Amino acid sequence: MATFAAVLDACVLFPAYPRDLLLRLAEAGLYRPIITSEILDELARNLVRTGKCSEPAARRLVAAIAAAFEDDVVETKPAIVAAMGNHPKDRHVLAAAVEAGAGVIVTANIKDFPAEALSPWAIEAKAPDEFLVDLFWLSPARVVGTLAEQAQDYANPPIGFDDLLGFLGRQLPHFIALVRGYGLRRL
User: Fold this and answer.
1) Which residue from 16, 55, 59, 186 lies 20 to 30 Å from 141 (Cα-Cα)?
2) Summary count for the chain: helices (H), strands (E)
């Protein structure tokens, strides 16, 4: 069972390979992923707006995420959202962290979560690369094993482990450097 919770902002769920990895690591029990229907709606809108998915495909994706993490979907109260001191467009994300007791918000928009808005709640904002480095150090073997399973599960088109690391390395350079170093240490 995961010992801590982290809110996943819509921006970290947008890129497919990192999204898949973050959700797989949650399924592996390394952390509890907190999401809201507002975060999932934002994800779907952005996938459609950028042409990454059709509207039906985006809706299927967010429905699958919501179903897989049904116990981790929180709904925020308007009064709590209004009381948050971070960027107005992301107040619902901080409110979700407060309501769920999450200590971390995983976001690519760190500037929208200034320390003075987070510190009263003992919450940190972390970029996905930093968050995944933290997860790696919790359980290197489990993280690398999850990555290997992720690569094996891609069949159309097939993607090798090294190719997956290459794709992820564009957005998660520090994390992938640790993974590659771990493989070398084990040889």
Assistant:
1) 16
2) 11, 4
Does one domain contain both 75 and 38? yes
- pLDDT tens column, 78-100: 999 999 999 999 999 999 999 99
Boundaries of domain holding 26: 5-128
The amino acid at 175: F
Is the domain of 102 the same as that of 155? no
Amino acid found at 7: V
Q: How many domains does the chain have?
A: 2
Average pLDDT, the chain: 95
Q: Tell how strand 104-106 and strand 124-126 pair up.
A: parallel
Q: Which two tokens stand for residue 13?
A: 């769920």
Same structural domain for residues 124 and 143?
A: no
What CA dihedral angle connects 103, 11, 43 and 27, to 10 degrees? Answer: -50
Exposure string of 74-95, with b = 16+ CB inside 10 Å and e = fewer, is bebeeeebeebebeeebbbbbb
Measured between alpha carbons, how far is 5 from 62 in angstroms, rounded to an integer? Answer: 20
CA distance 112 to 125: 9
Q: How far apart are CA 86 and CA 94, in angstroms?
A: 8
